[in-house]
Amino acid sequence: MSETKNVVLDFSECKYIGSLHKVIKENLELPDWYGNNLDALWDAITGLMEVPVKIKIVYHPKSSDTKKMKIYVNEIISVFREAETEYHEIELKVDID
Predict the structure, then answer these.
(1) What span, in angstroms and rounded, lies between the C-alpha atoms of 74 and 78?
(2) Res. 1: pLDDT tops 60
(3) What are φ and ψ of residue 81, in 5° steps?
(4) What are phi and psi of 82, to 5 degrees?
(5) Alpha-carbon distance 47 to 70, whole Å?
(6) Which helix (H) or strand (E) holds 54?
(7) What is the distance of C-alpha 49 from the center of its chain?
(8) Backbone phi, psi, residue 15, to 5°
(9) What are the pLDDT digits (tens) for 64-76?
(10) CA pair distance 36, 21, nearest whole angstrom
(11) What is the pTM of this model?
(12) Alpha-carbon dihedral sign for residues 44, 46, 51, 54
């Protein structure tokens, strides 16, 4: 059995949807062709991402621009939660304001 990887996705300073996906792509080591949307995220979590994995999502917005991302951060969390329920090799922790 492979060792569990620990990944932190810190969205606290993200001001744009693209920057959220950049954090995901870099920290989950996804390929350049990752699609930067929720469907691509689901595909990456369920088919590309190395498992088992413990993912911690951190979101403590630093400005009004970063606070605008809260709705989208919650959508990303929902995708990870669904994957956690369906695939037991994913563990999610959330630390958000």
Answers:
(1) 6
(2) no
(3) -65, -40
(4) -60, -45
(5) 26
(6) strand 53-59
(7) 11
(8) -110, -10
(9) 999 999 999 999 9
(10) 5
(11) 0.94
(12) positive
